[in-house]
Amino acid sequence: MSRILGAVALALLATPAQAQTLPFHADPSARELLPATGLPAIRFLTTADFPPFNFRDSNGELIGFNIDLAKRICTEVNVACTIQAWPWDQATDALEDNQGDALIAGLALSEETGARFDFSSTYLALPGRFVTRAADIGVFDPQALGGKSVAVRAGSAHEAFLKRYLPDASILPFESELDALAAMKDARADSFFGDAMRASFWLNDNLDCCGFAGQPYFRPHLFGDGMAVAVPAGKDNVRHAIDWALVRLKENGALDELYLRWFPVGFY
After folding, report:
1. What is d(CA 171, CA 166) in angstroms, rounded to the nearest whole number?
2. Residue range(s) occupied by CATH 3.40.190.10 in the chain
3. Full-prediction pTM beyond 0.85?
4. What does DSSP say about strands 41-46 and 80-85: parallel, antiparallel, or unpaired?
5. Which of 18-22, 217-221, 264-268 has the lowest average pLDDT?
6. Do the beta carbons of residue 195 and residue 223 sit within 8 Å?
């Protein structure tokens, strides 16, 4: 079982949100799908080890972006809502065994998981982005990387992206994204390229030195399809209700509010 990304450090809840581009990935055609009648509740399954999406606070309360989103979905569809945390290595089996109606925990859409479950529309894609030092943001040009060094995690999909789409860049591979970001900050590399969401957490602690440069790159075949809710195969009434709610939550601003609350350094 694969997860979209590893748990990331949570150190940004008190940081005010900045003006930023907001995501919109829900299928607009889903607005025509009315929630199925006779759906008394949605039993969400999740995990408690995936901040800032689903984790326990110091009081043991289950919180996070996914937790808030699950509650908002139930409110929008006007059904009762339960959210139960499972260990990560048991969560998909629990969904398959009808212990819940939906899994909102960062399960990656792959050939294996696609054979076991259906998935909602993507509610949060995970693009790749460049990060540079503040003085270079305004002049950064991804099409003029000849002779410029780009720090990246060795063997990552982001390194593959650079080799395929920006072959003029001089790639500097590092063991981890944190090492690559540090190299960019210390001017050992001209820029960094990697997962935008994880970079946003690093930037939260380094806004005085660095920032995103250029535009986000969405490449599902390299970076994955993003965050979606898994439901048991054939449980279309639940999936349609979730898709319908995601469009409504985008239109009424609730999805944007959740994004700004949990990701004040936006990665779009």
Report:
1. 10
2. 28-125+226-262, 128-222
3. no
4. parallel
5. 18-22
6. yes
